[in-house]
Design brief:
It contains 21 helices and no strands. It is an all-alpha fold. Helix 2 packs across helix 6 and helix 16 packs antiparallel against helix 17.
C-alpha cells in the first residue's frame, strides 16, 4: 500500500542520513566530504519529490519532513560552516542550503553562522557567497533584509565581484516582495557605483548599474521621493565631475520619470533647468575632454581595455542625443569642435569614429538646425573650418562617415538658404 511504501521510504532516508551523520563526525576530511555528498543527494531527491507532489494529485511526500527533522538534530549547517568548516564542504552544500530554505528550517542564528564563516579566508568567502546567490530565490524577506543590513555596514572598497553579484540577486528577490525596503539596497548599490572600486570587474559593475537604473526608475518599486533623491545625487556627481558614466545613466533613465518639483511650473521647465541652467551640459563637455585624456594615458601605459572605452563613449553619446532630442540642449561651435577632436581628429581607437558619425546623423537628420545649435553661423563655421579643413583627408572615409557629413552639409545649407530668403523678404 501507499502507506507501506511511505514507511519504507522513511526508513531508507533514516539509514542513509544515519550513515552520513556518522561520517560527518570523522576527523578525516574525505569522510566528511562523503557525508555532505550523501546528504546533498538525499536533499535533492527529497526536494524533487516534494515539488512533484505539489504539482500532482498524489498525497504530499513525507520524505522532506523526515529528512528535515533528522538534519536538525546534529546541526548540519554548523558542521559545514562552523569551526570545522572546509572549502570542499562549502562547495558541496548548495543542495543542503536550498533544502533548508525550501522547508523554512533555516533560522536567523544558523544563517548568521554561515555569514560569519565568510570571515575565515577569502576563498571560503567567495564560495559561500556563490552558494547563497544560487539559493537567493528561496530566501525569506527577513533573511534578505538581514544580508542587506550586513552589507550596509561593510566598507564597499572591501567587496568582491561575488558580493556585488549577490546584492544584485537580492535586488531581484526584493522586487517581488514589497515588504522588503529598497532604501538599504539602493544605498549599498549607489556606494558601489560611485566608489571606483578596484576589486569589482567591469562586467559586474555594469550589471549593478543596469539593475540600479531599473529600480530607481520604476515607480511601482520605490516612492517618487526616493527616485528624486537619487536623481539629485546623480546630478551633483556630474557637477563635481565624478564617475560620469554612472551619473549620466541614472539621469537619462530617470529624467522623464521624475515627479514635478514644486519650484517649477511644469516638467519641461524642470528638465530645462537641470540640463541647461543647471550646468549639466557644460560639465558634460568638461568631463568628456577629461575622459579622453585619461583614455590616452591608459593606452600609453598599456592599461587600456577597448570594450570599456567603447561603453564609456556610447553612454556619453547616448546622453547627448537624449538631451538634444528633448530640445533642452543646443550645441555651440566649441561643443562640436570638441566632439570632432575626441572622436575623429585625435581618436583613441579607429572604432571611435563610427560612434560620432551615428551621433551626427541622429542629431542633424530631420531636425531644424536652429533647434540643434546655438546659431546657424556657428554650425557653418564648424563645417567649413573644422570638418573641411586642410588637415582632414576624406580619402578612405567609410560610407557612414560620408553620409553623416552629407547630412550636416544639407542641414547647414538649408538653414542658410532659409535665412537668405527671410532677409530678402525683409528688405
Amino acid at each position: 500500500t501507499q502507506s507501506t511504501w511511505g514507511r519504507k521510504g522513511e526508513e531508507a532516508i533514516k539509514l542513509k542520513i544515519g550513515l552520513a551523520l556518522s561520517l560527518l563526525k570523522s576527523h578525516l576530511l574525505e569522510r566528511r566530504i562523503q557525508a555532505i555528498r550523501l546528504i546533498a543527494e538525499t536533499c535533492k531527491t527529497a526536494k524533487s519529490s516534494q515539488i512533484a507532489s505539489y504539482y500532482s494529485s498524489l498525497p504530499s511526500a513525507t520524505d522532506s519532513l523526515v529528512l528535515s527533522e533528522l538534519l536538525q538534530v546534529p546541526r548540519v549547517i554548523e558542521e559545514i560552516f562552523g569551526k570545522r568548516s572546509h572549502i570542499e564542504l562549502i562547495q558541496r552544500s548548495t543542495e543542503i542550503l536550498n533544502f533548508f530554505l525550501l522547508n523554512g528550517n533555516l533560522t536567523k542564528a544558523q544563517f548568521n553562522s554561515i555569514w560569519d564563516c565568510c570571515g575565515q579566508d577569502e576563498q571560503s568567502k567567495i564560495e559561500i557567497l556563490k552558494v547563497i546567490a544560487e539559493a537567493s530565490t528561496l530566501l525569506s524577506n527577513e533573511l534578505v533584509g538581514f544580508i542587506i543590513e550586513k552589507y550596509a555596514n561593510i566598507p564597499v572598497n572591501t567587496l568582491f565581484d561575488q558580493d556585488v553579484a549577490l546584492i544584485c540577486s537580492l535586488a531581484n528577490k526584493a522586487g517581488k516582495n514589497t515588504q522588503v525596503t529598497w532604501k538599504q539596497i539602493l544605498s549599498v548599490m549607489w556606494e558601489i557605483l560611485i566608489g571606483n572600486l578596484a576589486n569589482i570587474s567591469y562586467e559586474i559593475y555594469t550589471r549593478v548599474l543596469d539593475k540600479f537604473c531599473d529600480i530607481v526608475t520604476t515607480p511601482s518599486f520605490i516612492p517618487e521621493k526616493v527616485m528624486m533623491e537619487y536623481f539629485e545625487k546623480a546630478y551633483i556627481v556630474i557637477l563635481e565631475g565624478k564617475n560620469t558614466k554612472t551619473a549620466l545613466r541614472v539621469l537619462r533613465s530617470s529624467l522623464n520619470q521624475l515627479p514635478l518639483n514644486a519650484q517649477f511650473k511644469n516638467k519641461t521647465g524642470m528638465i530645462s533647468y537641470y540640463l541647461a541652467e543647471g550646468s549639466v551640459i557644460s560639465n558634460f563637455f568638461s568631463d568628456i575632454e577629461r575622459y579622453h585624456l585619461q583614455a590616452k594615458e591608459k593606452q600609453a601605459q598599456g592599461k587600456f581595455v577597448a570594450e570599456e572605452h567603447k561603453e564609456e563613449l556610447i553612454v556619453r553619446k547616448d546622453f547627448l542625443e537624449f538631451a538634444v532630442q528633448l530640445g533642452k540642449c543646443k550645441l555651440t561651435k566649441e561643443n562640436l569642435t570638441t566632439l570632432w577632436k575626441i572622436f575623429i581628429a585625435e581618436f583613441v581607437l579607429i572604432d571611435d569614429q563610427p560612434i560620432f558619425y551615428k551621433f551626427l546623423k541622429y542629431v542633424f537628420s530631420g531636425r531644424i538646425l536652429q533647434d540643434v545649435v546655438t546659431s546657424t553661423g556657428d554650425a557653418a563655421e564648424f563645417f567649413v573650418n573644422v570638418v573641411c579643413s586642410e588637415r582632414n583627408n576624406f580619402q578612405g572615409l567609410p560610407l557612414e562617415g560620408m553620409q553623416a557629413i552629407e547630412i550636416l552639409l544639407i542641414a547647414v545649407n538649408k538653414s542658410l538658404n532659409n535665412i537668405g530668403d527671410k532677409a530678402a523678404k525683409d528688405s
